[in-house]
Amino acid sequence: MKPVTRIHSRTAVLPDENIDTDRIIPARFLTTTERAGLGKFCFNDWRYRQDGSDNPEFPLNKPEARGCNILVAGRNFGCGSSREHAPWALLDYGIQAVLCSEIADIFRGNALKNGLLAIVLDEAEHHWLLKNPGIELSIDVREQAIELPDGGRIRFQLEAFARHCLLNGVDQLGFLLQHDDAITHYEHTQEKAA
Prior knowledge:
Layout lengths: L5 E9 L6 H4 L19 H4 L22 E4 L11 H9 L3 E4 L4 H9 L3 E4 L2 H8 L5 E5 L4 E3 L5 E3 L4 H9 L3 H7 L1 H14 L1
Parallel strand pairs: 1-2, 2-3, 3-4
Antiparallel strand pairs: 1-5, 5-6, 6-7
């Protein structure tokens, strides 16, 4: 996992509420444990027409949404199943951060563990971002702040361990492996004590 310290991008907006993980990546695409390539299936049934062509009505297919790495989503984003493929698909698609007033707990945990910044905002801040698509934001993970185009800032909270892992580019296993010497020393002292 690469360190996530700062994200600077325009925003794309998906205002729909209750976007569940099956909408993010349909179950029929969960046959792999490979992360690469899942972006082409992200929002598959919403993004494409029946004939496989782009759905011009899908907000992320509009020209102004192209290249946006920050997604402002409607309330209760990521609800439904606990599939880890959902954050994988978003990351592979190019989304680096999801901003919302309510993000499903399991999805948020999976997102943060995989390097997708999932930020919960208060209702007023969220509403303002929904109404202003395409603005440029800078998200500073260390400072836990979103810098607005006018110089204003929106503060957000991250659990300390998730923040540490994002800033250092490690997942939970990587974190444990960083402490391999201490773990091995502890195991040896326990064996001697037994």
